[in-house]
């Protein structure tokens, strides 16, 4: 008998041996369990109609509930976990959950299609204890699209329940979460899905299946199934491995584990400036809360997209990746990790274990920028991570890193050289900017023309020097709207 996927669904134990491991949680809920409250809208993690909640026992501050896009979660990813859908919120005595009551009270449901996903995003907000900033409520709900334009009452409902932490069965579940065993392996007829929980098991699986793809959060790779309809017969998940999640202090600075989610990284960055202040600014506009609850640091870097948002900021901070294989570990500077379009320095049989980021020097000025068509939940047209070290008013070191300008995230070496030794002033930066034309030959595509990208890249550098005249490491939200205001010079 094949190994069963075992988890709790709305507090009922499930053991399934029939569904394919590449079945999405969304399809499983609707087709196998007839829980049709969870809706399919986009099948790519954009609309939030499929949002469900998973109990995460290992959050940075203890157990927490995580709203996720069920369309991107493969069934073995919930092995050992507790999953809740909108059908599971009502009490046996008939009372609706406060999130459901708030949507009704504030008239937050119109056609109703988006409502179950909205309720589940509010459910997470209900039990969060870290909603201390106004922008965090927008961030919590930005992954839920309402086709009836009912955002004001939805936001009012979210505000009414956020952080209330009612004393109910769900709070009790947070107080005493069950241990999670994610180990899973199903192999037959040339197919495999494995979630090893030791590195020895990982190396064994990788050696036996050298063509297998590694997966963790699934926020990108799952699109191969849901949008391209391409089969993924061999998958090895790394999220069950010990020691790969979390941010810890090390001798060289900070170690960010590869399976650290963006939500965890964001929470850490909010408490640890100034080194992580540029990271916080980038992660804030990275994606929706549902995506950040699943997407990982290692996945974003190993994806090697030229518009991956973490690479520019971690590169400018002199990040190094730790690559680990059965024979041992090695380190590669992040500015040497990307070899070509979607190509990295990972050798066969290696995984990215962690990123090491040194403490930001006292004389450094650093910031990160993302330019996209929408402020929320959009892919970068141009992204920048910039850091200069200034001694006696002059640039002693410069790392200006761009995404969206070439086949890989890369440093603007010519511009950096033109800035070295010069005063860190608007006039001197303006004089050095023509050197940027020698660094990149951007392309025209649907997100922006080559001219637009060149112009934006120059203006981001101008904005950087303007911002760092007043604050060496500009904070997340210089303006109440949460946007970064830049004085654009044409």
Beta fraction:
15-25%
Per DSSP E runs of 2 or more residues, the count of β-strands stands at 20
Counting DSSP H or I runs of 4 or more residues, the number of helices is: 16
The averaged pLDDT comes out at 94
In short:
The chain has 16 helices and 20 strands. The chain has helices spanning 25-32, 98-105, 115-126, 134-141, 151-161, 169-175, 199-208, 223-226, 262-271, 277-284, 289-292, 297-302, 310-316, 413-419, 426-432, 450-467; strands at 5-9, 12-16, 51-56, 64-69, 82-84, 184-188, 191-195, 213-215, 234-237, 247-250, 253-257, 320-325, 328-333, 338-340, 343-344, 351-357, 364-371, 382-391, 394-403, 410-411.
Question: Can you put this structure into words, describing what you see?
Answer:
The structure is a single chain. The radius of gyration is 23 Å and the shape is globular. It contains 16 helices and 20 strands. Mean pLDDT is 94; it is low at 478-490. 48% of the residues are buried. A five-stranded mixed β-sheet has the order 2-1-5-3-4. Strands 10-11-16-12-13 form a five-stranded antiparallel β-sheet. The protein has helices at residues 25-32, 98-105, 115-126, 134-141, 151-161, 169-175, 199-208, 223-226, 262-271, 277-284, 289-292, 297-302, 310-316, 413-419, 426-432, 450-467; strands at residues 5-9, 12-16, 51-56, 64-69, 82-84, 184-188, 191-195, 213-215, 234-237, 247-250, 253-257, 320-325, 328-333, 338-340, 343-344, 351-357, 364-371, 382-391, 394-403, 410-411. 28% of the residues lie in helices and 21% in strands. It has 490 residues and is an alpha+beta fold. Among the domains are: 5-175, Ubiquitin-like (UB roll) (Roll), CATH 3.10.20; 366-467, Enolase-like, domain 1.
């Amino acid at each position: 008998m094949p190994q069963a996927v075992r988890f709790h669904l709305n507090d009922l134990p499930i053991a399934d041996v029939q569904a394919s491991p590449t079945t999405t949680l969304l399809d499983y809920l609707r087709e196998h369990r007839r829980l049709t409250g969870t809706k399919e809208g986009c099948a790519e993690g954009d609309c939030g109609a499929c949002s469900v909640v998973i109990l995460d026992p290992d959050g940075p501050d203890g157990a927490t509930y995580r709203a996720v896009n069920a369309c991107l979660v493969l069934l073995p990813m919930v092995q050992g976990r507790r999953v809740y859908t909108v059908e599971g919120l009502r009490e046996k005595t008939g009372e609706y959950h406060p999130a459901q009551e708030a949507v009704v009270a504030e008239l937050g449901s119109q056609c109703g299609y988006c409502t179950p996903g909205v309720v589940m995003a509010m459910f997470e907000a209900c039990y969060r204890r870290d909603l201390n900033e106004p922008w965090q409520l927008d961030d919590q709900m930005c992954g839920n699209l309402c086709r009836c334009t009912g955002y004001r009452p939805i936001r009012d409902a979210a505000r009414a329940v956020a952080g209330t932490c009612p004393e109910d069965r769900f709070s009790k579940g947070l107080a005493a979460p069950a241990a999670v065993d994610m180990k899973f392996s199903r192999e037959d007829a040339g197919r495999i899905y494995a979630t090893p929980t030791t590195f020895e098991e990982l190396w064994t699986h990788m050696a036996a299946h050298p063509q297998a793809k590694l997966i963790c959060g699934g926020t990108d790779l799952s699109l191969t199934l849901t949008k391209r309809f391409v089969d993924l017969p061999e998958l090895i998940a790394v999220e069950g491995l010990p020691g790969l999640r979390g941010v810890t202090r090390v001798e060289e600075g900070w170690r960010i584990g590869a399976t650290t989610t963006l939500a965890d990284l964001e929470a850490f960055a909010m408490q640890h400036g100034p080194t992580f202040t540029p990271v916080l600014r980038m992660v804030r506009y990275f994606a929706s809360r549902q995506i950040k609850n699943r997407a990982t640091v290692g996945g974003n870097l190993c994806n090697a997209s030229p518009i991956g948002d973490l690479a520019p900021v971690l590169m400018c901070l002199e990040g190094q990746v730790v690559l680990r294989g059965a024979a041992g570990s090695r380190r590669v500077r992040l500015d040497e990790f990307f070899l070509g379009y979607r190509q990295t320095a990972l050798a066969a049989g290696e995984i990215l274990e962690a990123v090491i980021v040194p403490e930001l020097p006292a004389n450094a000025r650093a910031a990160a920028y993302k330019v996209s068509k929408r402020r929320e939940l959009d892919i970068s047209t141009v992204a920048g991570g910039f850091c200069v070290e200034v001694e006696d008013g002059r640039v002693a070191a410069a790392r200006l890193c761009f995404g969206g300008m070439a086949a890989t995230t890369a440093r603007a070496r010519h511009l950096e050289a033109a800035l070295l030794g010069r005063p860190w002033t608007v006039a001197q930066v303006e004089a050095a900017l023509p050197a940027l034309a020698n660094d990149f030959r951007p392309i025209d595509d649907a997100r922006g023309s080559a001219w637009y990208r060149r112009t934006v890249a120059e203006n981001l550098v101008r904005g950087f020097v303007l911002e760092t005249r007043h604050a060496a490491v500009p904070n997340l939200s210089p303006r109440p709207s949460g946007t970064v205001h830049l004085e654009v010079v044409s």
